[in-house]
Protein 1
Amino acid sequence: MSTTATPEAPREKLTKKILTADHPTWCPGCGDFAVLHAFYKVLEKFQFPHENIVTLAGIGCSSRFPYFVNTHGGHFIHGRAVPFATGVSLARDDLQVFVFGGDGDGFSIGGNHLDHGARKNVNLTYVIMDNFVYGLTKKQTSPTSPIGFRSKTDPTGAVDQPINPMKKLVTSGATFIARTHATQIKHMMEMYQRAINHNGFSVIECLSECVEFYAGAFDAGNPRKGGEFNLIDEKKFDGTPEDEDRHDTSDSMAAYQLADMEWPGIFGVFYEKDRPTKNDLENGIIKKAREKTKEASDLELLQKTFNRLK
Amino acid sequence: MSESKQKKENVNDVVIRLAGNSQDGIQTIGGFLARLAGRSDQEVITYMTIPSTISGGPSIFQVRIGSGEVLSAGDSADFLLAFYQHSYEEHLSFLKEGGVLIYDTEYVKPDVDDKRFVYVGVPITGLTIEAMGGSAKDKGKNIFVLGLLARMFSLNVEKLRTLMSEKLLNKGEDVLRNVLVAFDAGYGYQVDNVLDRYYAFEPSKQVDGKSQVTMDGNQAMTLGLITAGIRYGAGYPITPWSSIMEALRSELPKYGGKFIQVEDELAAISMAIGFSYSGNLAVTGSSGPGISLKMEALGWAVMAEIPVILINVQRGGPSTGLPTSVEQSDLLQAIYGSHGDTPRVVLSPKNVEDCFYVALEAARIAKKYSTPVIILSDQALATRIEAFDEPNLEELVVDPQLNLKTRPSDYLPYSMDKITQHAPPGTIIEGGKYPVVTGLEHDEAGHPSGNPELHMKMTAKRREKLQILANEIDIPEVHGAQEGDILFVGWGSTYGPLREAVLGNTKFAKKLGHLHIRHLHPLPNGLETIFSKFRQIFVVEMNDSGIYGYGQLATLLRARYCNSSIRSINKTDGLPFKVREILEGAKRLSGDAVSNYSAYPYE
């Protein structure tokens, strides 16, 4: 396969200013502003070639993200951002693929795709801004709304058991799973960086408050509102006795148990494991097939097939 | 056959129907016969039915081999081979008067007093077991039958042996040896004890010197896609689409490409669109139920103007419907399915060969017009085998190009002045303003906008490019009479029987023409001129005549041309049209006898 590209020109440093596009349509005070800001800052650090950054999303308030980032972007349909992004990632190893979305997009209408993107270990980074409510459609119960949450679809309080995102991700086989809070910029950036550096399907659940329809939802995790932002104490493998009790991020059972902690839970990297990515596996299949064909041209291969059908 | 006391009878058009159960391997014999015909430059069309259950059930494979043009699998059989009593009982009515019934004497007790037929009883099961040894049970009796047919039709045994060796090469020498033992047993059977003649095909009239290739419609479609430079795709298994995805999955890596099996139909089209968005035109496909699921994402591709190829191998609907039967009831879905005004291109191949060429055309149109293109194939095309001239690959093969040429700073993804050509990610945009490709209504730069005037303009932009496409489509050729009494209009796999209906009637009073439409949306320009030359226009479709009495294409043509002489011949029995059914339909609608039709090319 041939590529026509234009040769490298001297590059301008990527700054927040350059990366800023349309002004967000989010309500003033929305947690997503911070997630966007952290994204700019992290891109400033990484300095990827500008044209190779791709920002993709499904539908929802947070899924408007691509319009606010000046990169190649795609605003797809509700729930299907992961398979859409998978196509981009698998065809183009040269790109940095980011997916943004909310809890409805990721855990409800797109829940099945999240599982399969995770088990396939597609190389991309998926940031789920979880606000526990449907915001764009103005306050209906979401898959992460807690029992008792009063919404327009549950006026007497939600009755269905909410999804536990960390548990869902652990069981579906995501290879990088982190949880953060939109009020904690530094932590968010750290999670972003580790997710980007991870080769595989990296997911960050970011608790991001909907000030309009679920104000105060995440105060319990925000020290400035009297809450506690407790971090996962990761194992250092230093042989010390205190290391025994620390969390081994390669232990999926331990990650699953951490996900059971009482609200507001704990933040940081729950799970991180190197496993061959779908990208690598598919490239491996190609490599083997190409070797077997002895690097034959397209025409030679086709001719061979047609000869067999004569 | 030198010692034979049999008479030789030359034949130029023979229909053989093999009837048994799906586990008997009759598809295998049929496949060998078809391939042999192809290699001998005979024309061939096959037809098969398979039960939709896994563990067997009655099944047929029909082969029609001819020395001249073979257009359909045949309305009736010259030879019926019945493995079981139920095969005999169910299919005897399909046998022509004077036809030959070959049957397994261990399972079939025919009514030999019925003098309309010639009876050839052969202890197929017993002789197979005898030849192959006790442990074989009756496995291999299909190959025994192939040997038997090879003798009866004086087929080229060397070519058949080569074909069997090629096919079974990777199954091990033991398997091949067993198969050849069964074949020899069948070939060695003294058929002259029960049949007073043997048959020989007249040499083919094919003189163009091109080699023939033999394959089914799904194979042709797959190879068309690869030749067109398609290197990416995604799919979910469903009958009768699966064999395309299976073939792409194993073939594409050889070409450096990827075909991904995904969790569902929604993911399949979404991923294909993702591939296309990344600059690599991709394919997805399915059959009815899966196509319904893909409709939302298809609408996105229309709105965002991302090219993608969507193959629908139609089967009987609605819902789960008839998974292994044929129907053409997805036309309106293909053209109008998905919410909103969603103009897209719809093409339909007319035969197996055309499955190859339609895939090439779909890719060309998708790229040029940055649009989704739906290919409407069907179960009959997907599974039937035909021999056709080998395509000129050197001329046709497309090198897949990923175009990441830098775009100028005034680049607009949705410019009003030209047909959209996206800049895939990885493309540098001078000035550093990068585009968002979107399913929201948008301005020229891709920014969301609900502006009423803009929506009107963008709706027109998406529609107008297909109107431009319509200008470059050739007006289809009319077969048979160029003007006259009745014009048959068809699309898709009805091509063969329709053409045969017209050819077979040239000597009768009614002047019949046949117009076949490959470009279903947009339609070619100029059809009204053709229509104006015929008194009556009968649109022949395998779908329901609907509440208002017209099939799906007929409805469209009536709406577009306001021509009240357009009427419908429909059927919904899940089987391909027979020539007879078309002519009977015409007779019914035209109110007088079309002809005393008898099967072409006899008489």
Protein 2
Amino acid sequence: MEESWLAIYEALPYLLKGSAVTIGLVAGALALGLILGIPMAINQVYGNKYIKIIISFYVWFFRGIPVLVLLFLFYFGLFVLLGLDLSAFKAGILVLGLRSAAYQSQIFRGSIQSLGEGQMLASLSLGMSKIQAIWNIILPQAIRISLPGWSNEYSIILKDSAVTYAIGLMEIMTRGKFIATRTFKPMPIYLICALIFLILTYGGVKLLSELEKKVRIPGFGNKGEGN
Amino acid sequence: MQEDQPIVLKIENIHKRYGETEVLKGVSFTVKRGETKVIIGPSGSGKSTLLRCINQLTIPDQGRVWLEDEEVTHIKKDINLFRQKIGMVFQDFNLFDHLTALRNVEIGLIKVKGMNKKQARERAYNELLRVGLKDQANLYPAQLSGGQKQRVSIARALAMDPSVILFDEPTSALDPELIGEVLEVIKNLALSGMTMVVVTHEMGFARSVANEIIFIENGMILDQGSPYDLFINPKHERTKKFLYKITELYGKSKDE
């Protein structure tokens, strides 16, 4: 028992360093997914039919392949083929981010479509261009509606990030495995890994639900209570 | 009074077809400055489509629209400039749900007209005052009643200084006891000389404010004339029947 505590005590700083890598990876992937996902969603609703086909193909591709396969396909395949010498960290952000873009685009698309065409019609009838309407009217509402789904996406990516162990990124899991084999104490070490993931999930989801409360539109969700 | 006023809006031979159904089969009319034109007709007769063809929210298959001598349907003209001058009030309000009443009214001034924020706010506030909602300026649409929402949307249209406002059944989505406050606002606009095209089923309103009533059925103008002409002296048996029916329906009990 005492040995287990000792192993944890010694491993903790090392694992926490891995947490920083995990957080960076997840933040990068989510940001990339957001930057790509929003324009994809907009074009899937308002774009022409060719761009819609291209986006549907993209979504089909990235949603249909296991993340581990994608990771290997890109890291050992495509990136090598293209002569890109990417670090495991950058490769991880790229693959998880491209994949998240597919999922995020569907979260935002659903939100945009849930708004109803009246918002766009009213914007246009004021003389706004389509782009002005999307920027000023559609997105501010769609993003609010998307927050719960986006928070879910965060918790999924966070946990999926552990697969970067397979390309040797020094994140939580890789470090955990490393120490577990060295100390012959897999149980306490992996428990600590699990605990770190639990805390990160809780913290992130909590933060996002605070944001959700903060940007909530007054009177919404309690219909009939208005004056 | 409107006799010698200039023409604000001219609609010529508008056709629109959705697949097999021809919704509009060549509709033409003109609206002079200060005139209130009321369009009536059974559901599905193409009234809403006609209004949307005016500001090109729906692109007509054929026909032309002029606003103050400029052709709206001209391919080289920027449609957004025309839409600024053609106000529109929708049946289901379409207020921007994430913005307060005041922000709903000022956003067009800021984003479309490029007015500075202080001026826009002042103007928006005055428009809310005009529709009797100064106390609701900082409430969100979800906190307003249907009648209040529709009045905000009228203020939003008014703030843009439109040459004409199109009303698409502005009271059809309202509870019966809220219809009055909205009609009152529209009536006052008519009296103040605003140029308007109003699609409605409110015959009392049509009778009291319309300079001309247009009866549309099956995508065509069947009858048009002053309220007196249509109510007392309709040309067609069909107009008489429709007016009788709708007056009975909306006149007697308002809760359908």
Protein 3
Amino acid sequence: MRKLVVITLTLSVFLFVSCSDDKSVTIAEQYGLAYAPLQIMREKAFFEELEPDFEVKWVKLGNTAAIREAVLAGEVDAGFLGIPPLLIGADKGMDWKLISGLSVCPVGLVAESSEIPDFGSLRKDHRIALPQPGSIQHILLSMAAERERGDPALFDGSLVTMKHPDGMMALLSGAVDAHFTSPPYIFMENEGGGGYETVLGGTEAFGGEFSFIVAMADGAFIKDRPELLNSFLTALERAVDFIGARPEECARILAGIYELPQEDILRYITYPGMKYTTEIKGLGRFIEFMTENNYLSSGLTESDVLYEGLRD
Amino acid sequence: MKRSRIEGSIIWFAALLGLWEIVSRSGLVSQLIMPPVTVILRSFAFEWGSGELEISMLLSLGFVFAGISAGGIGAFIISALSFQFDAVKRLSGMLTAVLHPLPGIALLPVFILFFGIGRITLLVVIIHSVIWPLIINISAGFTSVPAVYRRIGSNYGLKSAAFFFRIMVPASFPHILSGLKTAWARAWRAAVSAEMVFGITGSGGGLGWFVYNKRIFMDTPGMYAGILMLAILGIIVESGLFNLIENKTVRRWGVSV
Amino acid sequence: MTVISLEHIRFGYPGFPPVLSDVSVRLGKDEILCIIGPSGCGKTSLLNIAGGFTPPEGGRLVFQEMINPQPGRKRIMVFQDSHQLFPWLTVRRNVAFPSLPGEEDSSDRLLRLVGLSESAEMYPSQLSGGMKQRAVIARAMTPRPEILLLDEPFTALDAPTRRELQNMLLDLRLEFSVSMMFVTHDIREAVYLADRLLIMTPGGTREMAISLSRERDEFSDEFVKIEREVYKLISAGRS
């Protein structure tokens, strides 16, 4: 019996230890218009072009927690996410760095304007759908709640965790009263009729412009393969430039991926407030707010999370 | 035999914990995803001390017991009617065949549409997860009642209600019990996973929410503390409660389950 | 005095030759009528009709001035089934099962009479075959029936146990003055218990009074003689 236990457990360990090889790089992929540059980068093979000897693997992960776990497990080398989840990981001791900005987006809190005409009329008993606590949407809501209502945790008891499409359905069916969301859902909700309007914009909540999605890389990846990282950043830059220079072609590529009409995509990616840029915006404010409100506890600073190559 | 079974489980459990500790401390994997057992236990003690873990546990248990009770009563009524009326039997057979294989999570959008977002929906998910296996087991139990019992009942002048409660129900008990065991396992999973799909913060979540939330905020030891709590409750109910019921009933009666 | 009478009973299954064609039999007060015959001769069918579990196709059953009454507490059947006790009840509760509110105390006396006082708190699964049948019969006596209908109740038991239970039945008859219809295919058992025999064969039915005294010795010449006579009648009726 005892012997059997030991043998089984020992064997099972090997299932978890995966083989890493030096000839490939794995990038966590996400869906959403805010991630458009990475879809372009993938479709146009910008990265592969620069590093023909490497195999680029794209994996799709459900949420930021899964990305963190994949990075910790050594399964993912780089990926894209909001600043707050990146900071939470770094705060807990994860060795990963912010390597680039990706997009600035018109995110916001959408509600039925007859019921909730402005942020001031949002009550504690209103239900608010957003992706998850600790997400950028949650942090933005807390920031606005602190500034305008004096209590950052005012709505923490009103949150309902839902993915964007579910959140939109919940808002339209009346199951929730407000939805803190991002493109394209925010556009659909605003333009779909039914009297839904953005009652709190992201910039307004944040008090300025901020990076909605940023790129990160695993510390080991940065340290061991700096040239590869540079190529990755170059490819990302090219993808961002490509969107700016040839939005129609981008819209055509993205229309195939998102199964949305090309003209809608074009309108969305050129929407006022929608910007694809590698510039990182708002990092300091996020760190400050999240530290003040105990989301972060290790006294993290900007230089702790920024990739050294960017710190000049 | 019973003692050696318990010993066996303890050996397995201890070996697992030992292996966990070794792997965690070996540096093969990050402690951020696999914290040492000692750290998890400390976190467990902390969460228990703060009351968060107990409240989550009680909420989850409350939901599961409410769901099993409501589902159980429903399944009982449907099974009894099916036993009596062929039309009901066909309907419930059809519904069971269609709905039983569907995970409650898959039906969540429909439930939300009808019941909104909140405790009612969570309860409906749990009821959905328990009612079909219960109907299947209770109906199987009713069908398994020896034909001679009906004659004995009529010989002693039992009316239908008395026959049902004094003979049918206890005679089906082994099946009902195994149905309840399935129901417990499924209700527990449904409660936990439904909370992971949609959670309501602040207003109090159960253990599923506890684990989810710890994961989101990357409190990995806290997350494992929640999972440990889930496992402990599973053992208590499975080997404790159900074992006790079995010892007092089917094993004592000498009837197979 | 007749407690139950079956008159011109006909019974069969569609598409098969009739199982019972014009069978008439009466059961007297305190009488033990043993019904004997080869398998398939309709013994059990006749008992089921007497108990009200199967309606006859022709003829009638008269009991307590009722014609073809439904099953009831005054005619209790001991079925030919080894699982008649409820496994979830102790022996005591099994025996008390048919009692109406307020009558539960009488089960102690019955348990004593069938010799199960010591085993009252055991569950059926813990009992031997003989003890099970004792409990079944004690339960059958709980509603104080006028008639016990027994369908080969001791077939599965070994010979000494069978004799003990036969004697127990005889004691119960004295104690409660209950009449019995007892189906068996064991000639010796029939001759040992019966006041009267109903011999059922494909060739027809035939009654026979047993004139032996109550203290019967199965090895006595008279006993063996009757046994042989019954055997001949059954064999003759088969052809």
Protein 4
Amino acid sequence: MNKETIESDWDLVIEGKSSLLDLKMKDVWRYRDLLWMFVKRDFVSFYKQTILGPLWFFIQPIFTTLVFTFVFGNLAGISTDGLPQQLFYLSGITSWNYFADCLTKTSTVFKDNANIFGKVYFPRLIMPLSIVTSNLVRFGVQMILFLAMMGYYYIQGANFHVTNAILLFPVLVLLMAMLGLGVGLIITALTTKYRDLSFLITFGVQLLMYGTTVIYPLSAAPAKYKFLIELNPMTGIIEAFRYAFLGKGEFTAWSLGYSTIVTLVIMFFGILIFNKTERSFVDTI
Amino acid sequence: MTTAIKVENLSKAYQLGQIGTGTVSRDLERWWMTKIRGKEDPFLKIGQTNDRTVKGTSDIVWSLKDINFEIEQGTAVGIIGRNGAGKSTLLKLLSRVTAPTTGNIKLKGRAASLLEVGTGFHPELTGKENIYLNGAILGMRRKEIQRKFDEIVDFSGVERYIDTPVKRYSSGMYVRLAFAVAAHLESEILIVDEVLAVGDAEFQKKCLGKMGEVSKGEGRTVLFVSHNLAAVKTLCTHGIILENGTKGFDGDSQTAIGKYLASSLLEDEEGRIPDDFYRPYKQAICKLRSFNMMNLEGIKTNCFMLHEIMNFEIVIDSEENIDGVTIAVIINAFDGEPVVYLESLYQIDNLKLNKGLNKIVCSTSNNLLAGIYSITLNVFNKQNGVTYDYIDRAFELTTLNTSAIHQHYRWTSNQGLVYGEAKWEIK
């Protein structure tokens, strides 16, 4: 009995095997200051020694929108659900970019930070969380662009309207972040041993975009493939996003509910596999 | 006294060679054996002890095997061992960078580890921003850093540049700032790698002093891993020797150092000087073949106590009989500055080398205060001005103070390098 009281006295026990279901959220919370430091670092270092600074956040979506309008809107003539083409594409690009950035940047987190992870311990999850948070800043700036475009088209008298679903906006952002993070965590954990996946990810994300309703509305999808597109959890999120801001899109509680469940499951497994890998990835990277 | 660190049956296995092709099939085999059939991991069973000089048959190596020790709160423990003995692995496990294969480590109190100073420093950020970032990486809370900020800046001595991006810092300033953050960690357990081997002399002394303060003054437990025996001796009360991944001696630091030196000698080869050393003057006619340092008993060592007799045994391979040769042994301080110059010409007018191998022994008493020194060898001919062979700072010499000196000031480092004999009288 005496021995037991002594055993419980230890503040930290480092063991070879850890409980699989331990998400270590307490540890992450304790290091929350570090998360903000990383976000600040990313932000500050992004600006330094650039002339245009935050303008770069605008340039990419603007040019992508222009190209999409030309190729898919004008050449291919794909329907945009009666919405102004630029507005339609920009809404898709803005939300897709956030998801894609979260995914691609977290998918290399072990490889990119091998040096710092090899020297000091902190909950590794802090790093991907900081990436998702840093990207939120970029997403915010792009949202301003989107809102400005909405304002412009509203004055022009374009046919769209904001719906009550806009109240779901924070949830949608959270879902995009969590989905990107979850998939990214799984990939980064696997790439510590098998590098092959890192080749897949760059064009995989690009291809996946065409499997999501970024450049076409779900209503325009051929019935044969509609099922596949709906299977993609990002579809439900983007459709809801479009419906919230522009009043068009096949937004149903079912599709969003499906996306939410898939996201939560992926996120949960992502954290599990990530935590399992972080313990000794230094040996294999 | 309570136990601050308890290590039980700690082992760590590493896979040698390439990780890549074949990994999937092997992983599947492991998974099949351990998870499905509930057997022992087949790849761990065939592992061998970590001796890099012996070619093993398995590609799994135990970097650490069944290590057990306990460290009491408030002690400073030095972990010594040769390269590859498992020191760094132990450090990594203790600092949670990687997880043990089996066994466990129990810690009481907050532990902070310094495997490197300035981890995570971002060149674009200012000194101030980096203090906050680095502090947070090391586990400090923001408030804690705020409270200590002035102290850290003061310790680093870079106040003027604190709002300048660190990429504009000199490497010395960079290290100072980095160490200053680390030195102000408020943890009960501090795990330190050889991070002190950086920075200028003045700053090194300051750091050694700070480290001493840490364990002695504040009752903290310090784990110090080092090759620098002099530093281990001044800083640590306790020593643990690691040998090929297993624990050797565990006891007071003085005995540990002694045992370590004795054990390292057995493995030492004949002291042959490899041909690929940088030897700008090497002439075929006459070259240095081996160099060994021995104590009075004739035991090879590179560590001497103050006043101990040091015998330098130099073997020279000569193609022919040569007259008028001079041999010089130069002992340099850690910064490369020569401190002691021993030249054969002082004692022997005309040193003659015969064709073949010549063994020359230079004997002297050690008057150097504790520290790490390096030795330069020079063989030349004063008669015709030819340099036959010259090896610059190729051998390391560690000197330790006798316990009578600095006993009461164990945390302060030396002032000066050479012991001076003096008589003190009150008149």
